[in-house]
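Below is how a single chain appears once it has passed through the pipeline. First comes the sequence as given, then the structure the pipeline wrote out for it. We keep one example in the README because the format questions we get most often are answered faster by looking than by reading.
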Amino acid sequence: MAQPSLPEDIISTNILPRVSIKSVTRFRSVCKSWNSLISEPGFAKHHLYFTTQNPQDDTLIFNKLVLDYNKFGCMTGAHYGDIAVLSSSDLSETKLLDVTSAELHMLGSINGLVCLFFDKQDQFIVWNPAIRQAMKFGSPRKQFLLGDMKRKFHGFCWDAVENDFKVVVSYYEWGNFDSPLSLYIYSCNLGSWSSPRNSLFNEVWCVGRGLPIAIVSGVPYWTYCRGTLKLFKFDVISKDFRELPELHLFDSKKDVSVVNLKECLSALVYDYVQSINSLVDVHCFDKGLGVWSKMYSVGPINGDMFSCGWSDMQNVRVTGKLLGCFKHGGEIVFSANSKYRCYDHKTDEIRNLRSQEGYTHKCFSYKASLIFLKGMKPQHQVEPTLWK
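Resulting structure:
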C-alpha cells in the first residue's frame, strides 16, 4: 500500500508559509523543489503575510546609543552603534550587530529589511538580518557633485505602486537656511539615484539629526520642533515631503515619543519632569481625516521611568525613553535608566525585565522575512568588518 502523502500544493501554499524563518531556511536542503519554491519572491511575500498575522512574532529593533567612558569612569561622549531586537513573545533581547568603531545610524525597518547609514563612510546598507543578506551603495554626493552641501533628512520607505524599496536623502546649502532642499531618491529595483526636483518643503531645522522618528506602513516620519509636535512625512507619489497637522502639547514639561502602534502613527505624551503619578496620553493620527485624537491615558505611573540624563559631548538625552510599541500580556514595554521595564496598568506596578548595555535610542517595528533584493550578497561579503 502506498504511503499517504499531502498534496504538493497544500504543502507549498498552506504549510511552508506558516513555518518560522529559521525552519524554512533549513528546509531549503530537503529537496530541489522546496529550495526552488522558497527562493521565489512570491513565496517570500506569502510567508511575510502569515508572519504579519501572528502578533507573537512582533519584534522591536533598536539602534542603541553606546556611552563612552574614560579610565576614570567619567562619561566622555556617546555614539550610535549596536543593533538589537526585542521579542514581544518572551521579552528576550538578541544583539544583531556589535558596533564599536563605526558611527552607525538605523534609518528604519520595513518588511524585514533594515536600512543602515554609515556617517563617516557616507554609505548605505539595506540588510535582511533573517537571511543574512545585504547590499551597499554610496550617497548621491559624488554622482551629483554636491560638494559642501549638508545632508538634512534621510530615510527608508516603501513604494507600493512601483513595488520598490527606496532611500530618500535631502541636502541644503550650508549657511543659507532659505535655500531649497535638494532631493535624491535611491531605487533598490533600479540600483541608482535620481533627482526629481528641489523639495517644496523648506523647513531645514529638525530634531534628531534628520533621522526618521517612526515608520508606518512603509512611510517614514520626521519631527522638527518641540513644544508643539510638528511632523512631516515623505510622500512617494508626489516625491516630496508633506507636513502633518500639529499636535499641541501646551506644556513645556511635556515630552513625546512618536511610535508605530499597530500600524497607526501614535504620539505618547508624558511629563518627563514629574516622575510620580505621571499619565501617558496616547494620541493617534487619523490619516483619512487628517486629525490627531486622544484615545486613552495610561497610568498614573509611579517611578523614575522618565528621569532624564544628558551627554554633554553630543547634547542628546540618554535616559527615560518611552517606547510603547507593543504590549506583552497587557503591559506596556519601555526603556528607562538603561533597563527594559514593563508597566501593568491593572496593578500600577513597574518591574525591571533585564539589564542592557548602552541606551535604547532609535526604535522601529520589525518583522523577520525572506525578502531578497536584486544585488544582495552574503552580509560578510558586503562589509566584512561589520559582521565579525
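The radius of gyration is 22 Å.

See the next section for the split statistics.
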